[in-house]
Write a structure and sequence with these properties.
Blueprint: H1 5-15, E1 20-26, E2 29-34, H2 35-51, E3 59-63, H3 68-79, E4 83-87, H4 93-102, E5 107-110, H5 113-125, E6 131-134, E7 148-150, H6 151-164, H7 168-175, E8 181-186, E9 196-200, H8 201-214, E10 222-224, H9 232-245, E11 248-251, H10 258-265, E12 269-271, H11 274-290, H12 293-314, H13 321-342, E13 349-352, H14 359-367, E14 372-376, E15 386-387, E16 400-401, E17 406-409, E18 414-418, E19 425-426, H15 430-436, E20 443-451, E21 457-462, E22 467-468, E23 478-479, H16 481-489, E24 494-500, E25 507-513, H17 515-524, H18 532-536, H19 539-556, E26 567-572, H20 592-598, H21 600-607, E27 612-620, E28 626-637
Parallel strand pairs: 1-11, 3-4, 3-5, 5-6, 6-7, 10-11, 12-13, 13-14, 25-26
Antiparallel strand pairs: 1-2, 8-9, 9-19, 14-15, 15-16, 17-18, 18-20, 20-21, 22-23, 24-25, 26-28, 27-28
Helix pairs in contact: 1-2, 1-3, 2-3, 2-6, 4-5, 8-9, 11-17, 12-13, 12-14
Length: 648
């Protein structure tokens, strides 16, 4: 197999020039880019970059949704030996400043006017940014900024440069080595400035091909690329594995059309973080609550059948004839139509990662015939560390180490990984590199977990976040905040949760309601509301959330190790946690420390025994304006149960 991304592209173009490489939906119509067309695009873009002075080792920022010409731009940069640096398209301009200064970026390729405006704002603080090229020209006709041009202009310049320098492009592609830097991904920065994770062609392709062999992926797969290209999970599934396997990557028209596009494409290989699966289930729940009485009864009846029989069928376990018949009827009436509605009817393999997924949520999808599995990995490991084999899928584990991976556990419970997919370094940060990569080549993940009797890895939480209850009836008990948060987020009414309790005598939590799910619930009960803040403060909504918290506590009480993590008190926040307000990372991970500091008055109220607390919070709106949200939040006591010790 060719050892770099551009060589893989050229091999596909030579072997199957007319085969589809990428599809993009434009004005409601799917447009196809063949491998031959992609190779030509990448060549001209590479030559255009060379004409602009881009050389081996330079960094090229790429910002936008998944678009064929942006993929071709990354390939073009790699063909020159330059390093593409994808950044999150929904980030504000200020968030680009550190990565672009850190990587000494001189050129950027972006999608549209929104990203151009951000780059021009960045250039005021980072004047080294000399060139910005854009894919979509809408709204940019009257822009006359120096160094700003369209990708069409870059392609024309590249065509001319290629003609004037015959053989130069081919020599650059041939000069690349597997250990050359292929891409740099900036971490989400939950505790400070993001770090640039440097990966080689070898590390990314090794993990991509290992994952492809594990799940027997072929060039016949169909993939929908709808997550941010800056997230390494999307990059591995829709770029590295795409080039390793040669399957088709489909780019939705917009974020608003993803659900429709998903149904039209019918992917065979699908990846989504738990929040996407939670959102899909929430939409199903809302629809069923709005359905007629008979349809609701039919759905509940056959979902009971699915929960009893579906996972066993999926895992290849023996199932009685009557159970098979009932499941077949359910498949005809409910599961098949439901998979079609979700756009997942053709899925052969589906993965979730990034956060733990609730066991009930996980079981729901497997019950209706979707082969949903979990994986474990990170930006630093090129994603693939542990995967769940078919017929060995457990809701509470993340699978077994795959080909090339070694796992080691420290006495503290921290997980260490050694594999060919590890990062080369954190860019310009030798101290941080030395903290995570030891002399023996082990990567210190920062995650805590253990290997169960089946050889499957179980993740508890981030090692630094696993704490202890101090004082009270549960003195010394383990506190795993993410575990508690994920249990709360299983409920369709809970969108986000933040748990506190380390070095305290009890656990308290903030909760964000899911505005759509709770709004639908309220409307069916003729409960009026005037927006998120008003709805979140309704006594009926607080009672709804309390029921969810009590169910989580009942579940936690059954585990001696985690019974001390039961939530004693909670409040429903007056605003949704938002990445633009610094409360979440761009991958929607909770910045717990920042939230605890920002909402310190609410934390104090929870632990101070107050019944309510007034708060005013500055917020940023989507149009860039700033404002204030104020409310008096009620604090609710939850039911904490004694530990239900299991019989020996």
């Amino acid at each position: 197999m060719p050892s770099t991304f551009p060589r893989l592209m050229l091999e596909h173009a030579a072997r199957r020039p007319a085969a589809a490489a990428l599809r993009e939906k434009v004005y409601g119509i799917w447009q196809t880019t063949t491998w031959a067309e992609l190779a030509q695009l990448a060549r001209q873009l590479a030559c255009g970059l060379a004409d602009a002075g881009v050389r081996r080792g330079d960094h090229v920022v790429v910002v936008g949704e998944n678009r064929p010409r942006l993929y071709a731009a990354m390939l073009g940069a790699q063909a020159l030996g330059a390093v593409p640096v994808p950044l999150y398209q929904d980030a504000v301009a200020a968030e680009y400043l550190f990565p672009m200064r850190n990587a000494e970026v001189r050129v950027a390729i972006v999608e549209d006017q929104e990203q151009v405006d951000k780059m021009l704002e960045v250039r005021a603080e980072h004047p080294a940014l000399a060139h910005v090229w854009f894919d979509d020209p809408r709204g940019l006709r009257h822009y006359a900024e120096p160094g700003l041009a369209s990708l069409d202009a870059l392609l024309q310049a590249g065509k001319a440069w290629d003609g004037a320098h015959p053989g130069a492009y081919d020599r650059e592609v041939a000069a690349a080595e597997p250990d050359d830097v292929a891409a740099m991904f900036f971490t989400s920065g939950t505790t400070g400035n993001p770090k640039g994770v440097v990966h080689s062609h070898a590390s990314l392709l090794d993990r991509a091909t290992a994952g492809a062999r594990f799940d027997r992926l072929t060039e016949k797969e169909e993939v929908l690329a709808y997550l941010p290209p800056a997230w390494i999970g999307q990059n591995i599934f829709s770029y590295a594995q795409w080039l390793a396997c040669g399957y088709v990557v489909n780019c939705p028209e917009s974020a608003g059309t993803v659900t429709i596009d998903l149904k039209e494409i019918g992917p065979t290989y699908y990846f989504a973080p738990p929040r996407i699966f939670e959102g899909l289930l929430t939409s199903v729940t809302i629809r069923m609550e709005d359905a007629g009485r008979f349809k609701r009864w039919l759905y509940r009846h056959f979902m009971d059948v699915a929960r009893r029989t579906g996972p066993d069928l999926m895992d290849g376990k023996p199932v009685g004839a009557l159970a098979r018949l009932n499941y077949a009827l359910g498949n005809l009436c409910i599961y098949g139509p439901l998979r079609n509605t979700l756009g997942l009817n053709r899925v052969r393999v589906a993965y979730t990662a990034g956060e733990a997924i609730g066991p009930d949520l996980f079981t729901f999808y497997r019950s209706i015939g979707i082969n949903l599995k979990q994986l474990y990995g990170s930006t630093e490991t090129a994603v693939f560390v542990c995967l769940q084999p078919d017929n060995q899928v457990h809701a509470d584990s993340v699978g077994v180490p795959i080909e090339g991976v070694e796992i080691r556990l420290l006495a503290s419970g921290e997980i260490l990984v050694r594999s060919p997919g590890l990062l080369k370094e954190y860019y310009k940060n030798p101290e941080a590199t030395a903290e995570v990569l030891d002399a023996e080549g082990w990567y210190h993940t920062g995650d805590a977990g253990f290997v169960d009797a089946h050889g499957h890895l179980k993740i508890i939480d981030r090692a630094k976040d696993v704490g202890r209850i101090v004082g009270g009836a549960n003195d010394g008990a383990m506190f795993a905040p993410k575990y508690v948060e994920n249990k709360l987020k299983f409920f369709p009414f809970v969108k986000e949760a933040v748990a506190f309790g380390d070095k305290r005598e009890k656990v308290c939590a903030f909760v964000n309601i899911d505005f759509d799910a709770v709004g639908n619930w309220a409307e069916r009960r003729n409960l009026p509301y005037a927006g998120y803040t008003d709805l979140a403060g309704k006594p009926e909504v607080l009672e709804l959330v309390r029921e969810c918290v009590d169910k989580v506590n009942a579940d936690l009480a059954q585990d001696e190790r985690l019974a001390g993590s039961q939530v004693s008190r909670f409040l429903v926040l007056h605003k949704e946690l938002d990445a633009d307000d610094g409360e979440l990372t761009r991958t929607r991970k909770v910045r717990r420390g920042f939230i605890a500091e920002k909402y310190g008055v609410l934390v104090d109220a929870l632990y101070g025994g107050l019944a309510e607390q007034y708060i005013e919070t500055a917020v940023k709106f989507e149009d860039g304006r700033s404002g204030q949200v104020a409310a008096t939040l009620r604090i609710v006591d939850a039911q904490v149960l004694p530990v239900l010790r299991r019989a020996a």
